[in-house]
Amino acid sequence: MGRFSRILQPGLAILVPVVDRIAYVKSLKEAAIEIPSQSAITADNVTLELDGVLYTRVFDPYKASYGVEDAEYAISQLAQTTMRSEIGQLTLDHVLKERAALNTNITAAINEAAQDWGVTCLRYEIRDIHAPEGVVEAMHRQVTAERSKRAEILDSEGQRQSAINIAEGRKQSVILASEALKSEQINIASGEAEAILVKAKATARGIEAVAEAIKEGEHSAQAAISLSVAEKYVDAFGKLAKEGTAVVVPGNVGDISGMIASAMAVYGKVSEGTARTVAARSLPHHNSHGHGHDAEPRAESRAEGLQSGAEKEKTDEVARSVLESFEQTRQKR
Asked: Which DSSP string corresponds to 140-185?
């Protein structure tokens, strides 16, 4: 008769006609309530348009029926006011970044106020956030500038690293090239030193062999050397005109015999010095047999006389041989 009697449980229920009447029917399942779009101002004075979805469930049918006139409407209004309050505490950047935290705060505020209504709020989800066009354009420019800044930083870092790598590569290349050049110069110097040493040893052995041959051959070897010197002397004059435009020749170039005699005279002087050396070496041996110091001048004079006669005869003989060889060579040409 207009007074609450009991809550009918699910299943079969018996009612007395006229006396009993079902006043409210509540579903205990989770329900989704759409929160209409509304305006909210952020902490940095940006006006936003937001809408969302609220998920609720009735946990006490009695309170949901008699605790509030329209539980769904009351929950919707509470969600809107709570959302405005939470948005006003955040800046635009935090609203966009902290949507999960914002949804959690709105759900906690609704549950605290809706305990007496027999309804619990399971979660709240912000569906859309609409900012003014000017703010959106500014955000786009900011994002573009930030991206450009990052791109330039990355580009500069890449160029810097590239320059460092190139410089390091050039440094290593120069170091390796210098080390290679150093090794090459050391090897070349070692090779040249060894070549000079080998050539010097070979020259020394050749000189020793020539000296031994001259010593053993005596008159024949000396005549052959005289002939070789004369031929080289004549051949050198033949090559003067081929090596340059200016030619310096002696005054008696037309006198071939005189040129050869001059060459032989030079060799004769050398041979004379050699003979004197040999004689000087042989004198101490004779002195050891008791001839005394007075015999030295006489032996030296006698050796010089013999040497002069022998040298003169040898020079004439070599000159004749050279003239004959020169004449034969001229006829062949």
From this structure: HHHHHHHHHHHHHHHHHHHHHHHHHHHHHHHHHHHHHHHHHHHHHH
Domains of the chain listed by start with CATH number: 31-131 (3.30.479.30), 218-243+251-332 (no CATH)
Q: Concatenated DSSP letters for 189-226?
A: HHHHHHHHHHHHHHHHHHHHHHHHHHHHHTHHHHHHHH
Report DSSP state, residue 116: G
Is residue 296 over pLDDT 60?
A: no
Q: Which residues of 123-140 are buried (b: 16+ CB within 10 A; e: fewer)?
A: ebebeebebeeeeeeeee
What distance in Å separates the CA atoms of residue 210 and residue 213, rounded to the nearest whole number? 5
What does the pLDDT look like over 185-213, one tens digit per residue?
999 999 999 999 999 988 888 888 877 77
Coil, strand, or helix at residue 29? Answer: coil
Which residues does residue 120 pair with via DSSP β-bridges, in sequence order?
57
3-state helix, strand, coil in the chain (%, to 5): 70, 10, 20
Using an 8 Å Cβ cutoff, are 33 and 117 in contact? no
Query: Among residues 117, 32, 36, which one has the least CA distance to residue 81?
Result: 36
